[in-house]
Every structure is written in structure tokens, then in C-alpha cells.
Amino acid sequence: MRILRTLGMMVVALVLAIVPVHAQDAEVAPLRVGMEVNYAPFNWSQSTDANGAVPVANSPGEYANGYDVQMAKSLAEKLGRPVEIQKIEWDGLLPALTSGKIDAIIAGMSPTAERKEVIDFTENYYTSDIVLVVQKAGQYAGATALSDFDGAKITAQLNTFHYTLVDQIPNVNKQTAMDAFPTMITALKAGSIDGYVSERPGALAATMADADLAMVEFAEGQGFEASPEDTSIAVGVAKNSPLLAALNEALAQIPEETRQETMDNMVALQSNPDAEQTDDAGFFATVASIWSEYNGLFLRGMLVTLLISILGTAFGLVIGFIVQVVRSIPTKRKSGPSKWVIRFFQILGTCYVELFRSTPMIVQAMLIYYGSKQFLGVDMNALFAAVLIVSINTGAYLAETIRGGIDAVDVGQFEASHAIGLTHSQKMRHVILPQAMRAILPSIGNELIVNIKDTSVLNVISVTELFFVTKSVAGSTFQIFQAYFIVAIIYFILTRVANFLVRLLGKQVNGDSRFSMQSATGQGA
User: Quick one: which of 14, 354, 358, 430 is 20 to 30 A from 45 by CA?
Assistant: First the structure.
């Protein structure tokens, strides 16, 4: 009971530290805009509201800035509505829009023909050239035409038209598409790829922030061939949304000169005067600088990760116990409707276990979070959805773990329980499960540690846990290795502390193995 009370107090403290309190004008609904907050200079993350940044609604303490943010502010102002920035992974933007989680996508998204089949787009609000980003000291830095990249290892961002452009390079060694620009920059600097496709503003921001990178621009007729809709970006809205006409009218009021000036200002903000630092001292100095500026985001992401992991493991354990207790009810001696009701729930439990053990948690997250809104009309809070997803996923695995623990209990315990007339629930609660718990405690601890790390996949449903926060920091500062170095240390500390606490709990549960026999008169024997 002391352990449960302590756990409960920890959970309450975590919730109070994480869940924000919103004061919102009930008369004017905000314009909910989705973006990565991870694609400078179009959108990036910062720790203050400097230079006109806007708070990220689903990540308290984090602010979004960039060209997309400034456009969103201008459009919302012309619509007479406050702007609300929702931080969403690139792959989650379309599901978030079609399910009604957000009102618009303003995230450097091109109105390609494929996307137009799913959502509607406004008129373009920016047009850019397509370039390649390479290593400044590499063999392709002086390239002037696509033919110069014959045999080069080139890639682009996943689910973008950029990836289709790679095929235009003669004899290209096309690499697997990557999830985000920070990932591609990391691969480029490591030598895994020779270059990646980018829009000019994004490439310019990357090269200004990192002196090891260079941008390759092509003369007319020597570069990529792309349609105007592919090289432009527009605001995405749901099919037949009344916002479409209003946003187009608002866009028409923003002069082209103002748009270009805004982009130039955003690119300039990405300039890094310390980009030449490449030695070891510079690396650790950058780590210290990133931690100094973003420690609040890292710590908040850590708290979210802990909350999801602890609650998900605890609820998963309860689910696992219930499922396995039901599955272990003997039915041979039963007859009538009760037998078939029990068998139904046993089959249901087995299907649940096999389904959630046989599919990735990231797929379960997409289906549960976005599917519940789109098909059932249930609008889940992202944090609640995260705990639910981890709980039911963990429950499926722990059900099998508990089955192994029950099977490890000596058969004589079952026979003795039956002989003294205990019901199945009494037998499980008082005799079998307490003994099984000792055997499975290490596995429960391992599941907690796995959950601490596996919460990283929940960024796909916009949960601002530790990994999602780190991606934003890496994409905004272009200091990829330094940002992931910090998060690696945090994960290591979290898992070590969790392992220590589980071992300590194991000692409390097992207690002192010594015992003494008592006679019927109460005297020791």
C-alpha cells in the first residue's frame, strides 16, 4: 500500500507539471494550424517568444517561429481569429486535418495532385527553386548540373514530391527516403549519402547554420524539372471546407513583396555565427549551449515520457491480470450458458493478445488516435490517447508474461486451493497471483524500461514526449549530433533509475526468505 500511495503521488505531481491550463475565448474559435515545428526556415522551435514566435498549444513552454508561423499569424488576424499552433509530425498532418484535429496545414506543403485527391488547397503563398544540399568539402560541392551527380547517393524526405525528383538524376544511386531534414543532414555529414533534395530556403537555412554544408543551384535547363504546383506551397484545408474561400481572400491581401521580405527575415534568423566550430571543444560547448537554451523543453519531454511509461505499465499490468485470470478459468466442469459466456471472453482475450502483440505500436497509435476521431467522432486528448495506447499494448504482452508466471507456480498449490474449497477468483487472488508476481516482477520492470524508450513512436500522434522535443531542437538548431547526444544521456539516466527502482521493489516483494514452523500451540518447532 505504501508503494501504491507513493506511485499515486508521483503520478499526480507529473500530471500537474505537464498538463497546461488554457484560458480560451469561448466566442472566437482559434484557427488551429498544424505544422512540424521542425523545418527551418518555414517553421522551427525555440524556447522563448522572441522575434514574433507563437506558443505551441500542445507543447507548453515551446514556441514556434518561421515563415509558416508568420503567415499563419497574418491569415488568422485577417480572419479575425486567434492562431493556435499544433505541433504534428509530417506523416500525421493529413490524418490530423481529415479527422478534424486541426483546421489547416501551413507547413511548407506543396499542393501536389496526389494530395489534392484527399484535401483542398488555397492559392500558393510561396514558390521556390529546387536544389541539392551536399558536403562543402565533398566531391559534389562544385556541381552545376544534374549530370554531375552520376552515381551519387541521393535521397529526399519521405512522402514528398522531392523524392520523385531524385529519379531525374542520371544513373543515380537512389537511397531510401528519410523522415525529416535533420535525419538527412545527419546522414549527409556521416557520409551515408552524398546529398538530399530541398527547397532553396530550407537549404539556405541549413548552410547558414552549418558551415560543413553547401547548396548546389543549377542553371536553367540543367536542374530538376518540376511543375509549378510542385515548387509552390499552399495552405491545406479539409475537402469542401468553408475556410478555403476565406483564406484565399486573406492571402490576396498579403503583397508578394511582404511575403518575400518575411522569408528573407526568417532565413536571416537561422544564421549561426559559430558554425565554424568543429573541434571537440566546440562540440561540447554546443551541447552546453543547447542545454542552456532548451533544458525546459527537454525536462518537460522527460516528464511526459515518464508519465506515459509509468501509467501505461501500471494500467497494462491490470489489464494483463484481468485477461489472464479470465483465460485461466477452467470450463471442463461447467455447463450451460455460463460455460459459453466464459469461453467467449476467453477467445476475446486471446484475440486481443494476439492482435496487439502482432502489430507495431505506431500503427495502433495512428488507428486509435486519428481513427477514433474520423470514424467514431471521439476527439481524444493526445496525452490520454498515448496512455491508452501504451496501456493496451503493454497489457497484451504482460498477459503472456503473467501466464508464464502462473504456469511456474507448483501444481500442488492449485490442488491444495481446490481441496479447501476456494473459488477460482479466491485461489488466484490469495494463492496463485502473489506467488506468480514474484516470478514476473523482473519482466514487468523490463516492460517499464521498454515503454520509456518506445514512447518515442508516439510523436506520430503529436505527443510531445522526449524524442519529439529532441527532433524539434535538432531541426531548429541544425546541431543534430549534439541534440541527440543530450537525449541519449537522458534516456540512459531514466532507464538506469527505473532499473534500480524495480530491483528495490523486488527486494520488498520477496522479503526475507527465512521462516519458522509453528506448532498448533503457537510454539516454534
Answer: 14
Q: Which DSSP string corresponds to 124-189?
A: EEEE--EEEEEETTSTTTT--SGGGGTT-EEE-BTTSTHHHHGGGSTT-EEPPPBSSHHHHHHHHH
Q: Which residues pair with 132 in a beta bridge?
A: 197, 216
Handedness of CA 45, 101, 231, 262 (dihedral sign): negative
> Residue 141 and residue 113: Cα distance in Å, rounded?
33
pLDDT band of 99, cuts 50, 70, 90: very high
Quote the CA–CA distance of 36 and 56 in Å, as a whole number. Answer: 11
- Number of Cβ atoms within 10 Å of the Cβ of 419: 9
Cβ atoms within 10 A of the Cβ of 326, count?
A: 16
pTM of whole model > 0.85? Answer: no
User: SS3 helix, strand, coil % of the chain, rounded to 5?
Assistant: 60, 10, 30
Are 157 and 180 within 8 A, CB to CB?
Answer: yes
Contact 330, 346 (CB under 8 A): no
What b-and-e string marks burial along 28-42, b requiring 16 or more CB atoms within 10 Å of the CB?
eebbbbbbbbbbbbb
Phi, psi of 524 (to 5 degrees): -60, 145
Q: Which residue has the cell 548546389?
A: 216
Residue 415's pLDDT is 81
C-alpha cell belonging to residue 524: 516454534
pLDDT for residue 519: 43
The enclosing H or E element of 270 equals none
Q: Is the CB of residue 3 less than 8 Å from the CB of residue 55?
A: no
Q: Which residue in this structure is represented by grid cell 506543396?
A: 110
Q: What SS3 string covers 21-67?
A: CCCCCCCCCCEEEEECCCECCCEEEECCCHHHCEEECCCCCCEEECH
Mean pLDDT of 482-507: 89
Q: What CA–CA distance (Å, rounded) separates 96 from 373?
A: 9
d(CA 450, CA 438): 20
Following DSSP, what letter does each residue of 283-326 receive, concatenated? HHHHHHHHHHHHHHHHHHHHHHHHHHHHHHHHHHHHHHHHHHHH
Residue 181's contacts (CB-CB under 8 Å, 6 or more residues apart) are 38, 39, 157, 196, 198, 202, 206, 475
Q: What is the pLDDT of residue 504?
A: 81
**Cα(68)–Cα(59) distance, rounded to whole angstroms?**
18
Contact 263, 201 (CB under 8 A): yes
